[in-house]
Design brief:
Elements: H1 2-37, H2 42-45, H3 47-64, H4 66-76, H5 84-99, H6 125-148, H7 153-169, H8 178-201, H9 205-232
Helix pairs in contact: 1-3, 1-6, 3-6, 5-9, 6-7, 6-8, 6-9, 7-8, 8-9
Amino acid sequence: MKNIIAPTWKSAFVVIAVITMAWTISSLGYYEITDTLGLTNGYNEAPILMGAYYGVWAGMVIAVFRPDVNAWIRRASPGENRLAPAVMLITFALFALKVLPQLPAVDPPDDLNVADIVFAQPWYFLPKTVEILFQQVLLSALVLEMQAQKMSLRQSVILTAVLFGGFHLTLALTDANAFYVTRYTIAATLFGAIYPYLILQRRNGFVYAFSIHWAFYAFDTTMAHFAFAAASN
């Protein structure tokens, strides 16, 4: 039994290390770019640049885990709805271009350090969508590698929940307010817990997961617009 378990967990630790490194370096790189260019909200002020930046990171992760990704694509393709990604992207675009501009203007208190997404403009969601893709690829790589190592669904659920929630705890290092950090950490933990199930056991699982992830940001910024609009009156 030990001879079977040990190599599996050794491989898992390697995958976790690669994913952690990619997440950490990409985040540090984002802040380095914004500091160098003097940007206060990189997604609003340089959406094309930031979208390309996270696109490169997503491509690198896909390249690293290409065998697992290709195997999953071959297995999932026959049951996938090819229209689902298009419907998803059109829905996202309608929110960003039509709904977001109609929300009440935000005016948060000066002494409250709010997240960048509170001030999101329509083009903000271009790099945000690519960043979500990058995060989804990281999670998918983890889940697929765990499956390749014959880990149970329960083990994958625990790992993705702990890791995805834990990664969001690093928001505290950006001087974000405690409520923001707590809210996003709890949401990320819950999302991480359902991600393996969606990817491994549901048709169009990646689209469902992506939609849930994206919808949380849309919901969060919508609530912020109403909350801070009310606070300013």
